[in-house]
Amino acid sequence: MQERIRKLHHNRIFALVFWLIVVFAAIVTLPNVNTIIQYDGQPQLANTSQPVKATQIQNTWGRNLNGTYTVNAVFNNPDGALTNKQLAAINKTVSNLQKRSSYYGIQKITTMTNTPTSKPQLFSKDKSTEIVQLAVSHNQGTVRQISGQLTSQIATIGLKTYVTSPEIVSDAANEHIASFTLIVILMTLLIALVAMGILFASIIAPIITFLAILISYISTLSLATNLAYHWNFAYSEYTPIFLLLGITLFTLLTSFWFFRDLRNHIDDGMESQEATSKVIQNLGYRILISTLSLTLAFGSLMLFDFSSIRAYGLLGIGFAITGIASVTLIPVFAGMLGGSLFWPKKTRPKLKDHKLWHSLARFGLWQPWIAILVVIYLIGPFAYGYRNQLSYDNATDIPNNQAVQGARVLSAHFGQGKATPVTLYLQANKRLDNQNQLFQLDNLTKKLQAQPGVASVTSVTQPGGQPITQYYASTQLGNLNNELTGIVGQLGTVRNDLKSDSNNLRQKTLQSEVKRLQKLASQTNSLVTDSSSLQGALQAAQAKSSTATTSSSSKQIKRYISQLLSVNSQLNAALSTLSTLTSDITTSNTDATAAQSNLSNYANTIKAVNSSLKDSRKQVTSMQKSLNKMYLYLSGLQSSEAAKSLYLSPTQIASGDFQQSLVNFTDEKVQSTYLTITLKHAPNAKDTAKTLTQLKQVANAQLRGTVLEGSPLTFAGQPATTATIQNQFQHDLPRVLALVFGITLILLIIFSRSLLQASYWFLTFLASTAASYQLTHLLMKWLTGNGDFNWQVPLLAFVPVTVLAVVELTQLALSYRLNDAPLLDWLLPGIHEVGQTMRHSLFIIIAGVLGLLVAESQTLTAVTLITILTAIIFNLTLPIMAAAFGKLAVILPAQKPHDFHMPRRKKRQKRADRPIKSVTSDETKSTDDNDAK
């Protein structure tokens, strides 16, 4: 039993079993990578960041809008303005959507029909595009599911329809990355298989390498996805790809070292297990320090808070697993198969002596300063011209996606920032439905509208992005001035009427009438007196005539009596008439007296009225002058800046339109509101973060000293998220580079035991990387017209170039350390020896990244070009700079200060006493021991 166990151990079967168990567990527990990319691929922002705070505010908004997505349904007529028939068709579609709102989880629908004040924001100026905003519950499903459901539901005959939102576009970007991730993985593995087959002209060796890559990759990927799925560890949408890059390149390089040495030993007649052990003994230290360097360098990234950077820390674990697999898994098959690994090639290929690095190193030794200046002249302009031109828009690589097309339609017809607005949340400790708070909100709205980079701002007082005129003092003053003008005119008419009435009421005429009536009354009284006297006389005469008639009998008397009777009869008639007249005169006298009294009273009344009319006329004149002054003041106030302020009366606040605006822009408690800011540029613009910082400063300054001072302000939306990512990335990227490169340099110094030489080599690598980055920028701009890299490019390119630097510089450092000869004696042969594998390393690096091109992604294309150019430039400049700086490190300290006061004869004698240096064709030597040291 012990012998069997010993044999199994000798054949490394236990290691194979261990790796089989690991890979089986990794495959079984591997979650769905596409799902992880969709849900966890986006950068995880800190809880203190603006977008996260805004999400918390929105989730407690109330009004049945908690936990909802805001989705835009876009209706576009590509042929021009929407016709009445098309508008009716849109209304019909919206009506059908409203009927099935519960089925689709729609909590609110906002159109220009039910919210007329928001029409400028929902209907394009060219009248070709209409937006219908939908608030959809999170419980309805993912944004991808919601988009799929609504896309078919809003389809309208004769129109282009889209369902879009920043969340849907981001999800589409993740979906696109997930779609080509598998293709990139398969193509990279295939190219790695072919590359190893070309290097060794074998079939078995590439398969063993393929298995090593596959086992290391699946193990690391399973660990990464499980950490993200179960423990919410940082995960990037490019995690499967950068893990593949790092593991593939490192495994290819270590496998190449292993198989090359193994074949040498086997061809020399060594038994397979013994040859395998010998190779592990020879390469173990080299693989160990390379693994240690990469593990520490990338593992240190777990210390960062930014999730997209922290996700790269998993590479440290990946390199550790790869390093262990290189010295445990590959030897299992090497020991079992031996020379069969290199089937069908039976003879060892003759290795040619490649002298490229030898020639470059000789150039550096020949004239170090000239060599350094030539390198600086060739790559210096590119390295110096390095610019951090990054784009933070992940939608540039997405092909024909309806959400992206909808966003582009919005940008074309409403402005570039329409598809990705900024939301500014303001939380107050008082209700926002009164004049004081609304006045300050409107001032804030106008202040933000005036800022550069801002296209429009909507708020509770300006729901359409434009001031509502009846809410402002200027309009209200204009209406008041019009009323004052009418009142002043009416007062003038009253004044004229009063003057006319005063003129018509003539008291003198009334007084003359009274006098005439008084005279008539006195004449009537005299007439009554005379009539009474005459009546008395007639009655006396009648009595006498009656008496005379009874005593006389003569004819004369009879005649006289007859005449007297006639006279008496006439007198009786006259008396009766006079009696009647007296009665009538008495009545007339009474009426005249009453008329006189009434006229006297009326005259007094007219006098009082006339006096009152004069006073009224004076008051009207004074009032008219006062109103004229008020009119002039209000007219001036109307044209002043003060009249441009908002003033909402209680009646206006209670109106239906404004209450609808309160519902749309405030929370359930009416203590929080939001302003929607549309920027002039898309959020990938370079100045987005600067614009948002300026907007926040302006908002805080505007609220200072007002009733809303101290109210928390929180930005949300895709530009806010982009700005947060940009700020964190720009803040952390220099620290990432300093940390990883610093750790690599320190380990390189420790392994080489040389501070200066390791620093010179590493500076050469940094200059080569910077030059290749800028050269790639120029190439991409020439090829695609857009030279701005996606912000993930530096991080992705960071992986293969770091592997390149660690592998090649580690090999150079070990050659330098293990050599006992003086530096000048080592430079040429040492560099030449390392250069023998340069072409193979260069081939492996280039082949390892070519698989990225299959994705047809500008991001991965840029990574490929940066890696290839860095590998080429670095392998051309390293031998020159290493030789030149190595020689200068020896000859410069050996030079003594020039003595200007030494006599010429003594100078000549001193030069004659110096030892003569000899220079061979292959190397430069000095006989001076100090120089050699």
UniProtKB/TrEMBL annotation:
A Pfam family: MMPL
Membrane topology annotation: Multi-pass membrane protein
Positions with biased composition (Basic and acidic residues): 912-933
Nuclease keyword on record: no
SUPFAM superfamilies xref list: Multidrug efflux transporter AcrB transmembrane domain
Annotated spans, Disordered: 901-933
Provenance organism: Levilactobacillus suantsaiihabitans
A GO CC term attached to the entry: plasma membrane
Primary location: membrane
Localization: Cell membrane
Record's protein name: Multidrug RND transporter
Membrane transport protein MMPL domain segment(s): 66-368
Segments passing through the bilayer: 12-30, 177-200, 207-229, 241-262, 283-304, 316-343, 363-384, 733-751, 758-775, 795-816, 837-855, 861-886
Keywords: Cell membrane, Membrane, Transmembrane, Transmembrane helix
Entry annotated with the keyword Transmembrane: yes
Family in the record: Belongs to the resistance-nodulation-cell division (RND) (TC 2.A.6) family. MmpL subfamily.
